[in-house]
Specification:
This protein has about 230 residues and is of the alpha+beta class. It is about 20% helix and about 35% strand. It contains 4 helices and 18 strands.
């Protein structure tokens, strides 16, 4: 009889955990590192040439040019249009005003963003409208900072996302720990829950069916049997 109740409890737990897992898998998240070989020379779209010789961040070292080519050539970029977010984590700054500044969607030589939004011009996160429109900042000096760039909104405004480089605003320096491209929704920090936590305080009859607190007769709760 004891084995039966153990089996009953485990079966109920399996069903409930399975439902939770199925719900979690409905929104699959894919994370890829931003890599140098994503930056290509697109002058020949059919045969793009690797042009990743620009700057690339080194984990744990401060730099003023985390990624890409500082010249911001219109033909040298990483096409990240298939992603939903770019997440940059920073552990330290040389100045309070320093932050990662992606330069996106330059389509011709010398093209510069203005102080007002214009979807025919590039996105430059040194402009206030770009920060307010596409960027969120979280963190502090004790825990580091996370900068999230909403590529969904850029695609809504421009139709594509071509990343030319990532500089540091304010001509300062910062230490970048990771640059991650995300497909799907951003993680929400959902904690893992144990079987006991899921089933705590819930009642089941001998058939494994969940019953209310007013149900009469034999029931199982927290792995033990009771009679009411």
């Amino acid at each position: 009889m004891k084995k039966f109740f153990t089996y009953l409890f485990a079966s109920a737990a399996f069903c409930m955990i399975g439902t939770v897992n199925a719900m979690a898998q409905d929104d699959e998240v894919v994370e890829d590192d931003l890599l140098p070989d994503m930056f290509m020379n697109w002058t020949d779209p059919e045969n793009p040439t690797d042009a990743s010789g620009g700057c690339a961040y080194v984990v744990g070292e401060q730099t003023g040019m985390p990624y890409g080519d500082g010249n911001v050539a219109e033909f040298l970029y990483a096409d990240i249009s298939d992603y939903n977010y770019l997440v940059v984590t920073v552990s330290s700054k040389a100045a309070d005003h320093a932050f990662p500044r992606p330069f996106i969607n330059r389509t011709e030589p010398g093209q510069q963003a203005t102080d007002a939004f214009d979807a025919s011009l590039p996105v430059d996160f040194n402009k206030d409208w770009a920060k307010e429109r596409y960027m969120t900042e979280e963190g502090d000096a004790d825990n580091g900072w996370t900068y999230t760039f909403d590529l969904n909104k850029i695609k809504e405004d421009y139709g594509f996302v071509h990343l030319h480089c990532i500089k540091v605003g304010g001509w300062s320096e910062l230490t970048v720990d990771a640059m991650t491209l995300v497909k799907g929704s951003l993680p929400t920090g959902v904690e893992k829950v144990s079987v006991k936590e899921v089933l705590a305080g819930q009642r089941f009859n001998v058939a494994g069916q969940k019953v209310g607190n007013n149900a009469k007769g034999l029931y199982i709760m927290n792995g033990k049997k009771y009679i009411k």
